[in-house]
Write a structure and sequence with these properties.
- Helix content is 52%, strand content 7%.
- By secondary structure, the protein is an alpha+beta fold.
- The chain has 2 domains: 73 residues, Glutaredoxin (3-Layer(aba) Sandwich); 106 residues, Glutathione S-transferase Yfyf (Class Pi), Chain A, domain 2 (Up-down Bundle), CATH 1.20.1050.
- The longest helix is centred in the middle third of the chain and has 31 residues.
- The radius of gyration is 17 Å and the shape is globular.
Length: 198
């Protein structure tokens, strides 16, 4: 299988983490989003939405959207439970990540890290702070009760949220006020086969 991605992207890092935890053999293909490499005809033929990460299987099938990819790769493993309620809990937190976490924390990080916080983006950057802290507060409340985000066991829900939370400071988010989140970050990083972001 081939994985198209950017090693500094949190969404792509999710896929790298699953591959690392599960020892999945793959070919990584670097894609430069700032050079518009997701907008050329060759890439758009694989993913009309023009986004990474993108999984391409040997048969030529392609799968986009980071959480869909990691759940597909983790299916049948302990990272993605078979039991319906446990699976729904994982999905609940992944939807939270995409709608309540990523649009604030990841976007603020992109403006700062990728774009260099230009003057014309400072207003947008600052507007992301309140929403990002709200998401971190929700995570803090959950992680006071359970060691992992969807309960007692490490799942793809943790991978989804770890990806951008562990670099939240690059978007201006100080995690000092979230001790349970910090403890969880350390817990994830101490797991066997953990791989840091390149």
């Amino acid at each position: 299988m081939k994985i198209y991605g950017d090693r500094q992207s949190g969404n792509c890092y999710k896929v790298q983490l699953v591959c690392s935890f599960l020892n999945i053999d793959h070919e990584w293909i670097d894609v430069d989003i700032l050079a518009d490499e997701t907008k050329n005809d060759e890439f758009l033929a694989r993913n009309p939405n023009g986004k990474i990460p993108l999984l391409e299987l040997d048969q030529g099938k392609t799968l986009a959207e980071s959480n869909a990819i990691i759940n597909y790769l983790a299916s049948g493993s302990a990272l993605y439970p078979d039991e319906r309620w446990a699976q729904a809990q994982v999905l609940q937190w992944q939807f939270f990540e995409q709608y309540s976490h990523e649009p604030f924390i990841a976007v603020a990080r992109f403006i700062n890290k990728y774009l260099g916080l230009p003057d014309d983006k400072k207003g947008e950057y600052e507007s992301k702070q309140a929403g990002g802290h709200k998401a971190l507060q929700v995570m803090e409340q959950q992680l006071r009760k359970t060691p992992f985000i969807a309960g007692e066991h490490f799942t793809t829900a943790d991978i989804s949220l770890y990806a951008y939370t562990h670099v939240a400071h690059e978007g201006g988010f100080d995690l000092e006020a979230y001790p349970s989140v910090q403890a969880w970050l350390a817990r994830v990083a101490s797991l066997p086969n953990f791989q840091g972001m390149a």
